[in-house]
């Protein structure tokens, strides 16, 4: 009986040790993933751009040229003097951008992540490492787009309803011209012949 109890204790200890080993291994993998995500895998040269809004853009977001990823965002901060968002990003060393290039924050889809889209200019001079793109357009939020759409639809419907009301009143002969007088042939006397 003593050997049976000792066998169970030995087996329980082995299972406990194996479980702890698995947990330590998973914890190590998680820590490695977090540390690796914090590192910046930079290749290429850095450029800067200022934006009024960068809603949804974050460090690690793509930088694309013609839909192809050519870099990534490595830093973002607020300029205390202009209150604009300063974005620093890398561009592959084989990509050379004219000085009049533009940077636009856009998204993959309606609810997708944001990225910086580069639009090359036509200038012969090229941006140097550490240079700044001055032609920028910030992110437009989904809320702003929906708000514009709703106000546009509301305004259109109000105008259409007003036109229908005016046409209905004119066809019944009850509309009055802008001079405030009754329409021709209407004496205002009610049902008199």
From TrEMBL:
<dbReference type="InterPro" id="IPR052336">
    <property type="entry name" value="MlaD_Phospholipid_Transporter"/>
</dbReference>
<dbReference type="InterPro" id="IPR003399">
    <property type="entry name" value="Mce/MlaD"/>
</dbReference>
<keyword id="KW-0812">Transmembrane</keyword>
<dbReference type="GO" id="GO:0005548">
    <property type="term" value="F:phospholipid transporter activity"/>
</dbReference>
<keyword id="KW-0472">Membrane</keyword>
<feature type="region of interest" description="Disordered">
    <location>
        <begin position="161"/>
        <end position="193"/>
    </location>
</feature>
<feature type="compositionally biased region" description="Polar residues">
    <location>
        <begin position="161"/>
        <end position="179"/>
    </location>
</feature>
<protein>
    <submittedName>
        <fullName>Outer membrane lipid asymmetry maintenance protein MlaD</fullName>
    </submittedName>
</protein>
<dbReference type="Pfam" id="PF02470">
    <property type="entry name" value="MlaD"/>
</dbReference>
<dbReference type="InterPro" id="IPR030970">
    <property type="entry name" value="ABC_MlaD"/>
</dbReference>
<feature type="domain" description="Mce/MlaD">
    <location>
        <begin position="44"/>
        <end position="121"/>
    </location>
</feature>
<feature type="transmembrane region" description="Helical">
    <location>
        <begin position="16"/>
        <end position="35"/>
    </location>
</feature>
<keyword id="KW-1133">Transmembrane helix</keyword>
<dbReference type="GO" id="GO:0005543">
    <property type="term" value="F:phospholipid binding"/>
</dbReference>
């Amino acid at each position: 009986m003593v050997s049976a109890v000792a066998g169970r204790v030995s087996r329980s200890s082995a299972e406990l040790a194996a479980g702890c080993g698995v947990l330590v291994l998973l914890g190590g993998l998680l820590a490695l993933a977090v540390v690796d995500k914090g590192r910046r895998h930079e290749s290429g040269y850095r450029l800067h751009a200022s934006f009024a809004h960068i809603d949804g853009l974050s460090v690690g977001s793509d930088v694309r040229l013609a839909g192809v990823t050519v870099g990534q965002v490595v830093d973002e901060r607020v300029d205390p003097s202009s209150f604009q968002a300063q974005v620093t990003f890398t561009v592959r060393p084989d990509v050379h951008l004219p000085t009049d290039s533009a940077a636009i924050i856009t998204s993959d889809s309606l609810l997708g992540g944001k990225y910086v889209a580069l639009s090359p200019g036509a200038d012969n001079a090229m941006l140097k490492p550490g240079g700044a793109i001055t032609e920028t357009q910030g992110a437009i939020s989904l809320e702003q787009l929906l708000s514009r759409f709703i106000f546009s639809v509301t305004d259109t419907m109000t105008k259409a309803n007003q036109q229908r009301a005016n046409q209905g009143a004119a066809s019944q002969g009850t509309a009055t011209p802008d001079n405030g007088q009754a329409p021709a042939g209407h004496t205002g006397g009610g049902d008199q012949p």
